[in-house]
Write a structure and sequence with these properties.
By secondary structure, the protein is of the alpha/beta class. The chain has a single domain, classed as Leucine-rich repeat, LRR (right-handed beta-alpha superhelix). Helix content is 18%, strand content 20%. The strands form three sheets. A six-stranded mixed beta sheet has the order 2-3-5-7-9-11, with no helix packed on it. It is globular and about 80 Å long. The relative contact order is 0.09. Bound molecules: 2-acetamido-2-deoxy-beta-D-glucopyranose (3 copies). The site of one 2-acetamido-2-deoxy-beta-D-glucopyranose has 4 residues, from strand 6.
């Protein structure tokens, strides 16, 4: 074998090794979304085993049931409505930067809405209705510039409706009925078109807000 052929083979071998290394590195970083979802799985109780296919050793979560990815293998949907889940949401959900649909309605999820959900810049739909979620509606949700559907009804949420939400021009549907919210109902921006029934059954929520005339609930924090 001539020297130049030998060097040629070594060249190809080296290129292969580098390519393989890059593949390994990129699949590891892609699976940070799998890690985030697996953290959610560990935080939930799942008596019906709907999360059984969520195997964190796979290169990405795109073959898991109830998960949808785009062409770049980034998670765009989590569809776990009506799945008999209990337990808590996790901050790691905020890492799914291409997530468009977070569907967790009709479960028995407790705890609070993680502030980090405000990082989900692509989110179109946040459906957490019919759970047992407490705490406040995080003002950070006012960063969700793509949000169209915000359904938080039938939970145990307290505090005010964050005024930050009034700045979301894409928002079309808001339902916060059947919670424990206080303060007044916003009327500006997207709230101009939300029916009052979507605010019903909040003992201390007053309104709609009349600019300068409403009595504000000063005990509301
Ligand atoms: C939900 O899970 C409970 C156990 O925690 C079980 O008894 C019940 O049958 C499940 N409900 C449905 C609709 O699967
Ligand atoms: C809802 O969560 C609270 C704790 O935040 C708990 O005390 C209550 O039992 C839960 N309700 C249901 C129906 O699971
Ligand atoms: C709402 O939360 C309070 C405590 O913050 C709890 O006493 C109550 O049972 C909860 N309501 C429901 C329907 O779970």
């Amino acid at each position: 074998m001539s020297k130049s052929v030998l060097f040629g083979i070594m060249d190809i071998a080296l290129t292969l090794i580098i390519t393989l290394n890059l593949l390994v590195i990129s699949s590891v970083s892609a699976n940070s979304e799998g890690d985030a979802l697996y953290t959610l799985r560990r935080s939930l109780s799942d008596p019906d085993n709907v999360l059984q296919s969520w195997d964190p050793t796979l290169v990405n979560p795109c073959t898991w049931f109830h998960i949808t990815c785009n062409q770049d293998n980034r998670v765009t949907r989590v569809d776990l409505g009506n799945s008999n889940l209990s337990g808590h949401l996790v901050a790691e959900l905020g890492k799914l930067e291409h997530l468009q649909y977070l569907e967790l309605y009709k479960n028995n999820i407790q705890g609070t809405i993680p502030v980090e959900l405000g990082n989900l810049k692509s989110l179109i739909s946040l459906d957490l209705y019919n759970n047992n979620i407490s705490g406040i509606i995080p003002p950070s949700l006012g960063q969700l510039k793509s949000l169209v559907f915000l359904r938080l009804n039938d939970n145990n949420l307290t505090g005010k409706i964050p005024r930050e939400l009034a700045g979301l021009s894409s928002l079309k549907v808001v339902d916060v009925s059947k919670n424990n919210l206080c303060g007044t109902i916003p009327t500006t921006g997207p709230f101009e078109h939300i029916p009052l029934t979507n605010f019903e059954n909040n003992r201390r929520l007053e309104g709609p807000e009349l600019q300068g005339l409403a009595t504000y609930d000063t005990n509301c924090s």
